# Entry
Amino acid sequence: MDIFISSAEEAFLHVGSMIGFFILLFGCINYKTNGNFTYVISKNKKLQPLIGGLIGSIPGCGGTLAIMPLYIQKKLSFGAIVASLISSMGDAAFILIASNFKLYIFVTVIGLITGVITGYIVDLFNLELKLNLKSPKCKTLGRGSLASNSYNKYDELDRVAHHHGNINKFAYIITHGVGYKLYIAILLIGFVFMTIAHSGISSSIVEKIHSLEELIAILGIVSSVIYMICFKKVFKNSNSEEEENKKGSLKEVLIHSVGEISFVITWIFIAYIVYDLSVILIGGEEYISNFVLYTGIGSVLIGALLGLIPGCGVQIVLLSFYLKGNVPLGAVIANSISQDGDALFPLIAMDKKSALWATILTTIPALVVGMIVYIISV
# Structure
């Protein structure tokens, strides 16, 4: 039960609410600008790895999380995503900012340079195409497919829903009735809770918010699973007449965005449960970090390999040990470059092949740069 609750809080409040906020934000901006916002980014292909690296260097995972939907929608190059993942330090950045700001600048600059160079190499050799990462499944996500559509002609839910069969009729009513509105409300409440709870403000109001986090997180996860199932049923059973009449409605942008968000959050939740159970079986995150202490230059390899684990937990522990003088800087640099933070979870959920190759491509420069830093610093 503790794992379930903690995974729900991480998946919905700490990660999912932020992902959801940015998916909704991008969807609304695209709707208001008729897609011009993403068009400006997507047309500047030569600058995308640089843009991705700069966004990834923003402390925390928010920057990379924000642009991940653009890659899923094929508005951003694979090199830009790789650059962003490499330059991102995740939540560990806040620890360095508070404890050793000069080191934070150093690690950030190293990550940014490595990320941008790697991103340009990825795009230069057109690895996205050579690795066949343009998954057909991803084309059904985001604006330009269902996200830019609406059921303008169908004001009465029942009149359309009956075309979807008895079970799918109920699913249609949920997704196109009050369901998506309730979900957005829960999501925004979660986002506000997460923002206030981690703002550093101390007051009785913040304490009350903390006491409600578990309830909101569980409600959010349950809502995500239900909406994801309903949305999939509706999407699979939509007919050509409906598809033809879905043009330019903010309502359908929101409905599809919620479908995308619920899908991502559900799989993030599953990933966190698997991760937490795995850590328990291994012996804990500190056990993993302690193992690094006795490996010398091999610690760089271990640091890079530990970066394969999604999330920021292991890196935070490694960084804490480094600040105590127990882990070499090269291992921390390798882990920082290799680890992809929470931003990898939505990519795993939507495009597992791209997630796998992104992980591989961030690990290679992590080993190279980590070894160089280790040799110089010894």
Summary: The chain has one domain: 2-377. The first helix runs from residue 2 to 32.
